[in-house]
């Protein structure tokens, strides 16, 4: 086991034992996750699932989600489910309790320490299921910002996340690549953008910017005016719009693909994924239709593992998006492709 992880585990074990009033608690297992890890801690006749690194997440889980009972546990990779069965010799007490999907999101992003306190101006962030990207209010391209005001160094390579949702995924990446890259999140749900802006300010990050912008109408103007190279565009679990008459609302359409292709730097990449096969195939067809300029990563780098259908097996980003966490929790597969622009 990695030395620093081992040290963290020992520290956490001591904290749990001494600081949380759980005298006989000890950590009995570690479930490694992307970018973080979960400790399974046991007391006398009880098991508690406790959180990843930050103290706040750990104590919140200890208080809110005590999963009682059981000497043995299973961590299901796909369902991200911790099953607790009965304490020794008490089969009649058998029960199962599960971590909820939002808890897993909180764990995945625990090291960001994002505040739950939302500014007065923003109020409660109630998220409507969908916003129609074809509505007239979203048909006007947004004003291009002064990139010098937006990023500390606007010449750094840029990653754009189209339909960034809450923005946690992009904030996590920006925090890890402070002086190397800039990050731009485009999202049509205004309250999500406001909250993401609040978090960016709170964390004092100068390499990330969120915009309330319809990628369909604004992507081209935004990326073509950015002073540095466009190195990565991600479209992760876009809204599926299942009904045929709503397919035109899907974000990946030919003009957007053309714009991505023409603005990407040589060797720049596109990461697309969906937990809905039909949507993934739709996006794949669009990007596959430019074989002279865009090659799938598997053709370039055979070390990137794909299944027999050509879907990339693992997430290359080091962190899962929220939708990805929810989908995997439900047992869904993520259909993923990575394209690279030819020199
Ligand atoms: C299912 S969510 C996925 C969010 C995030 N990428 C994830 O994987 O957790 C899709 C997001 O895309 C946003 N969206 C849909 N169409 C868009 C468009 N044309 N431009 C920008 N954002 C869009 C939606 O508001 C929604 O937040």
Automatic annotation (TrEMBL):
One biological process term in Gene Ontology: tRNA methylation
CDD domains to which the protein is assigned, alphabetical: AdoMet_MTases
GO CC field: tRNA methyltransferase complex
Presence of the UniProt keyword Signal in the record: no
Name used for this protein in its record: tRNA (guanine(46)-N(7))-methyltransferase
UniProt entry keywords in alphabetical sequence: Methyltransferase, S-adenosyl-L-methionine, Transferase, tRNA processing
Residue intervals passing through the bilayer: none
EC number: 2.1.1.33
Species for this entry: Prunus persica
A molecular-function term among this protein's GO annotations: tRNA (guanine(46)-N7)-methyltransferase activity
InterPro entries assigned to the protein according to its UniProt record, in alphabetical order: SAM-dependent_MTases_sf, tRNA_(Gua-N-7)_MeTrfase_Trmb
Domain of life: Eukaryota
UniProt catalytic activity: guanosine(46) in tRNA + S-adenosyl-L-methionine = N(7)-methylguanosine(46) in tRNA + S-adenosyl-L-homocysteine
Enzyme class: transferase
